[in-house]
Design a protein that fits this description.
- The protein has 222 residues and is an alpha/beta fold.
- It folds into two domains: 145 residues, Rossmann fold (3-Layer(aba) Sandwich), CATH 3.40.50; 68 residues, DNA polymerase, domain 1 (Orthogonal Bundle), CATH 1.10.150.
- It has a six-stranded parallel beta sheet with strand order 3-2-1-4-5-6, with helices on both faces.
- The longest helix has 18 residues.
């Protein structure tokens, strides 16, 4: 079996979690929905549809498809305005380059749609036309369902059971367990070490740079 790495994007490879939090806050505010920023942050990483369903359920508001569609559009518009501040996390490019140099397959699987993922991918230097990138547009269900990671493993032709899922949220770790992959947690998205470990993370590192330093611990070697 060939080792492979399946990466989440926001908070894992790019420093974009809080841009998404602020974009969702703006979208909710424009609809007159009051919700604390910390509550929004705790939902980042799951699929946009499930995210909005859970947020609206917490507010006690009636949920209808028109409102969900408006929130998604407002979030995408707000995020595009914030995308100028997107930067790769420390070591992210070096980590991907190292894996490529060692001939270890990798892919990116994000709960975001391509319209919001593209700016982060560009800053990361990843061309979705050449690299394996799976977005929410391509699967029926996103995290915490395993579909994204299963599709990413299939895209690069590896057995999901031999893959490591690298993510910053509990939703990544839950999806990894459901996909039968091993989870690696990063602290760069705002979740704590214990939360990630309780959700199934085999190892937890600070950020991509820290993971690169310890890559041999998780099968990252020639």
């Amino acid at each position: 079996m060939t080792n492979a790495f399946l990466f989440d994007l926001d908070g894992t490879l790019t420093d974009t979690v809080y841009q998404h939090v602020l974009a969702w806050r703006e979208a909710l505010d424009e609809e007159g929905i009051a919700l604390s920023v910390w509550r929004i942050h705790r939902k980042i990483g799951m699929s946009g549809g499930l995210f909005t369903n859970m947020l609206l359920r917490e507010t006690g508001l009636a949920i209808d498809q028109d409102l969900l569609d408006r929130l998604r559009r407002r979030h995408a518009d707000a995020y595009k305005r914030l995308a100028a501040g997107v930067v790769p996390l420390p070591g992210a490019r070096d980590l991907l380059d190292a894996l490529t140099g060692m001939g270890i397959p990798w892919a990116i699987a994000t709960s975001g749609r391509m319209e919001t993922a593209r700016p982060a991918l560009e800053k990361l230097g990843v061309d979705p036309g050449r690299a394996a990138v799976v977005t929410r547009d391509e699967v029926q269900y996103a995290k915490p369902d395993p579909d994204l990671f299963l599709a990413a493993a299939a895209r690069i032709g590896v057995d999901i059971a031999s893959a490591f899922v690298v993510g910053d949220s509990i939703w990544d770790m839950i999806a990894a367990k459901r996909a039968r992959a091993l989870g690696i947690g990063l602290l760069s998205g705002g979740y704590g070490r214990e939360e990630l470990e309780r959700s199934g993370a085999l190892r937890v590192y600070e950020d991509p740079a820290d993971m690169l330093t310890h890559l041999d611990e998780v099968g990252g070697r020639r």
